Amino acid sequence: MLLATVYYRRVRRTSLLSAGILLVLGVLALVEALRLRDDWLGAKLMPAVVGAVLIVLGAAHLVRPAATPEWPDAAGFRRVALIFVVLALYVAVLPYVGFLPATAAFVLVLVRALGAFSWAATIGVTVAIALASHLVFIYWLGMSLT
Amino acid sequence: MDTLGFLAHGFAQALTPQNLMFAFIGSVLGTLVGVLPGIGPTSGIAILLPLTGFLPPAPAIIMLAAIYYGAMYGGSTTAILVNIPGEVASVVTTLDGYQMARQGRAGPALAIAAISSFVAGTLGLVGLTFFAPPLADVALRIGPPEYFGLVVLAFSVVVSLSGPSLVKGLSAAALGALVALIGLDPMSGVRRFAFGTATLLSGVDFIAVIIGLFAVTEVLVGVEEAVGAVSLAPLGRLMPRWDELKACVGTMLRATGVGFFLGLLPGCTPGAISFISYDIEKRVSKTPERFGHGAIEGVAAPEGANNATTSGGFVPLFALGIPATPALAVLLSGLMIYGLQPGPLLFEKQPLFVWTVIASMYIGNVMLLILNLPLVGLWARMVRIPYAVMAPLILIFSVLGAYSVRNSFFDVAMALVFGVLGYLMVKLAYPTPPLVLALILTPMLESALRQSLNIAHGSASIFATRPIAILFIGLGIALTVWTLLSRRRR
Amino acid sequence: MTATWRIALTLLLSLIVIVGSALTAPVEAQPAYPTRPVEIIVAYAPGGAADVAARLVAAYASKKWGQPVNVVNMPGASGITGTLRAIGARPDGYTLLLDPHSSSAMLFAVESDVPFKMDGKTPIALLTLDPVVYTVKEDSPWKSLKDVAAAAKADPKTFRYGIAGVAGIASFSVSQFLYSAGVPIAETNRVVFTGGAPTVTALAGGHVDFAGQQWSESAGLIQGRKIRGLAVVHPTRLPGLAEVPTAKEAGFPDLDVVGWQGLAGPPKLPAAVVQKWTALLEEASKDPAFLEQAAKLNKVFAYRGPDAFWQFQQDELKKYLPLATRMGIRK
Q: Are the beta carbons of C193 and B49 separated by less than 8 Å?
């Protein structure tokens, strides 16, 4: 009985969250539509329509029962969070540190975190990937990341 | 008719060793460029255009056209192998192609992509050869009201792709529509949802969103589930089974038709066309529930439609001088630098040049097939590379790809944001294709609707006076209703 | 033992690679400009009017200097994004800006809140002009601008004209024409498209009746006999459009909206860089092969030096500001 209520509350909570997000976005869209200085058949049209649709859909979320979300276990969640943080850091330092150093560091951390390689193999893979991507993107295609 | 004679001359020219070599180089370069996410045909051609600067006109154009076709094909390789669409038109290929790869069937997926591209592209070229000028005139008749009808028809695909929960599918679509509205309205110049920042003013780039939703999300999911590799299933055969190939014949023909005719219309994005083609296949199939889980027709249809669209896009380009897509616009400027004046007079004034180019497009299609079929084995093995190596590679490609579209780190940030969003959507069982489709279609919908209303001084009566528009809108509504009813029945 | 050696070696190797890459950062610009590839940023999508002008000049410069001059496209926000990036770059001459009317005079005439200033760049030169061509469908009953004016005045509610963007050049050119012809604009149908190509395409298909886009955008369909040019806003008739009269000949001498593309750099660009470019462009303006190529791309090469270019931009702004206010599009 207790398990059932806990389960049910958990399900409802995600529905509420989704409904909330949709409603907020819908209201935002409508507010923006009203703020714009143009004809109703001009720039205001689509924001208004989309806003209304979002609000209707948000309400619809509250009405129908939601299915169970499949949340990951703690270890999985830690992995995802770690990888994402590393990725975000990589992107953040890329313009400042330069492509090769940043990429080398990024790959090193990732390969270490994801793989069960020896240190030698890890370094080898890091160098290979970093150099290869540098050659293709920076050298051959001439992308400039400054 | 003279046409065949000219075409024969064209082939004679195109089959010279020099031109063959350039077609080959172009195909290879184009494929490589297409494989890199974010660098689609448009940027590919723009980047490689200077390379052709030192060539005489015919080989240069041959190479550029080969690059274009190659890029279209390259985009599907990564779509199948690692769920990264190389460009917009490959998004649909990921739906079933990646699933096939995970089931150890990357080989057949890649092979059918190559075969379907070849068949549809070639048939489309036949259409270009014989019917270009009259078709171009038909294309001109399609104006804003008809485009609106077309987009309504395309939106009906959203319902079909929503999966088990219609509300979730529509929510994803609404979200996609909202994102599409961010930025400067291209018609009136009004700033929408920019909140005073200059960065949001340029809107959210479409490729960045796709890279986030597909590539980054997939890596996050893979990391969470601690997968060893993209696919640990034993690699089966490299080619599709004979019965599968036979089943795909109808698919390829339908995809050619849809892709070619819709590709004629300037402004009809290839992404939308591949969705429509996919949906048609799903509807005519006797077992539609296979779609989304590795149905081979689900790869054959969009791939065929893409290449047919490419061929179709050359019709208004050659016959009217109007580029149907941004990539063709770059190609057009390339053509003009070589003294080619596209337009109806092109076929009269410079027949040998045109037909040489068209003949080499045929050859380019063959070349891509010959080039890629043997490589299928090599590509297919890549899905077994340990995830510890694949994941960083995918992420680096994603970062660089998102950056390369507009040379902007904002786009990379957007890719990350949508990566997280995609992850949440996967966990909460919200389908991502409707979001992408809405993102593609909303700008078209908006401009078509507003223009139609402007033409008729603000009244919606314009739709009543245009039969083709009525046809499309009616079809769209009918299809939507039909899909809704058949879902009820299930 | 051997394992440790291997690890140490790979570590050393990667360290060398990482340090080495950091050390190969580009050095500052040396006197003999250019010593490495130059980038011209075009704040618009490839294939457009601005992009074509940039590629024309870039190709010529690359050939003459032996160093690649590359065009980099950064579209977005009607040209603001790319322009901001170019202005914010280091003023060493290796990042330049293709500066067209749409992110210069016309933009400032319409928007009061632009994130950069018109004098926030170093003008290098005016490159090309892209004159406005007023067009109608090939089989239209209107054979001259005066016909159009008469028809629009007689029945404004059925008069539909197409423009590419409310603040685009066609908006100015068509509005200027309608004002000077005395047509009640408010009662006409203005259909806004997202670019020049869709606009002239719609014209050719008969979905709108009149347009006033640039030469480079209209030439293809004119030569293909799908649309007809009624007048060209230029002192002389254009090559390839010999049957199209000038606006003056067509009876409307006051029409003066014209598209143009120029070259600029970030503020505080060294004079040496500017001089190198102006010398090159002067040479180009006397080079018949180059001029012919420009004409093939439907551009009038109209080189003016840095001071003349700046004066030109200010004159343009003075021209469009009152027009924008009158049109009601000034924000």
A: no
Q: Does B51 touch chain A (CB under 8 A)?
A: no
Global confidence as pTM: 0.83
Name, in order, each residue with C-beta under 8 angstroms of A21's C-beta and a sequence gap of 6 or more: A58
Candidates C91, C136, C119, C116; CA nearest to C244 is C136
The CATH number that applies at residue C312 is 3.40.190.150
CA distance linking residue B5 with residue B359, whole number of Å = 12
Q: Is residue C237 part of a domain?
A: no
Query: CA C185, CA B361: separation in Å to the nearest integer?
Result: 48
Full domain range(s) for residue A11: 2-63
ipTM confidence score: 0.85
Q: What pLDDT is recorded for position C4? A: 52
Structure tokens at B325: 């897509």
Average pLDDT over residues A67-84: 79
Q: How far is A124 from chain C (nearest CA, A)?
A: 7
**Structural domain range at position C46:** 38-129+259-327
Chains in contact with chain A (at least 3 beta-carbon pairs closer than 8 A):
B, C
* Disruptive mutation site among C169, C226, C293 for chain B (greatest number of B CBs within 10 Å): C226
Same domain, A94 and A125: yes
Residue B385, beta-bridge partner list: none
Residues on chain A touching C6 (C-beta within 8 angstroms) = 120
Find which of B137, B322, B452 to mutate to test the C interface (most C CBs within 10 Å of its CB): B322
Closest Cα partner for B117 from B303, B241, B396, B297?
B303
Predicted local distance difference test score (pLDDT) of residue A10: 57
Whether C223 and C282 share a structural domain:
no
- The contacts of residue C191 (CB under 8 Å, 6+ apart) are B144, B451, B454, B455, C160, C161, C162, C163, C202, C207, C208
Of C70, C73, C191, the CB nearest to B455: C191
Question: Is A143 in Cβ contact with B403 (below 8 Å)?
Answer: yes
β-pairing verdict for C95-100 and C258-265: antiparallel
Q: Which residue of A has its CA nearest to C17?
A: A127
- In a domain, residue C27? The reply is no
Domain count, chain C: 2
Quick check: is A119 in a domain? yes
Residues in C touching A124 (Cβ below 8 Å)? 10
Residue C173 belongs to a domain = yes
List the Cα angle B459/B465/B466 in 5-degree steps. 110
Tell which wins on pLDDT, B155 or A39.
B155
Give Cα A77 to chain centroid, integer Å. Answer: 14
In a domain, A128, yes or no: yes
Label residue C246 by pLDDT band (50, 70, 90): very high
Number of structural domains (chain A) is 2
Q: A90 and chain B: CB distance < 8 Å anywhere? A: yes
Task: Name the token pair of C299.
Answer: 């551009």
Is B52 at the interface with chain A, CB within 8 A?
A: no
Query: Which of B32-36, B334-338, C222-226 has the weakest average pLDDT?
Result: B334-338
Contacts of B450 in chain C (CB under 8 A): 192
Cβ pair B400:A57 closer than 8 A: no
What are the tens digits of pLDDT across the range B236-283?
Answer: 777 888 888 888 999 999 999 999 999 888 877 888 899 999 998 988
End-to-end CA distance of chain B: 54
Whether residue C251 lies inside any domain: the answer is: no
Evaluate whether residue A36 is within a structural domain: yes
Q: A17 burial class (0-12, 13-18, 19+ CB within 10 angstroms)?
A: middle
Contact A83 B187 (CB under 8 A): no
User: What CATH number does residue C175 fall under?
Assistant: 3.40.190.10
CA gap C92, C89 in Å, rounded? 8
Q: What is the pLDDT of residue B277?
A: 92
Q: Is the pLDDT of residue C30 over 60?
A: no
